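Q: Sequence in, structure out?
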Amino acid sequence: MMETTFAIRIKVNGKWQPLNVLSSDLLVDVLRDRLGLTGTKKGCGKGDCGACTILMDTLPVNSCLVLAVQADGREVLTIEGLGEKALHPIQKAFVEKGAVQCGYCTPGMVLSAKALLEGNPMPSDDEIRRAISGNLCRCTGYVQIVEAIKSLKTEKG
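A: Exactly. Output:
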């Protein structure tokens, strides 16, 4: 059986991208393989690890669970779009607080933190932990990640 191809447009990191995608194409694969945005990591493929987290219309989304056709007309932010010219303050905080080790979870963590801080610039520790709960990290134990996000809230307060 032949799969249907769809012509879609996604605003990725501020630039509209016209794409022809199959009905089964996952957004994570389109971002990585078609647009070369490899900062979005492929992890579990089931939405459990958060390595593929991107922001879609400012909300954190597991791109391994989104069909590319579902992103038609939407705005997507990947880690590459966050600090294009210089490190974003969240990225700087992660580096300064030692919240980056292997780096596999970092893009998703950073984008989840961005979504949290945009909606709540003064989150509690519990709110920070809840916001990153969909992102698994096996290296840091989360302490440094929470500290990095906390350092940003105190700078704004």
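The chain has a mean pLDDT of 94.
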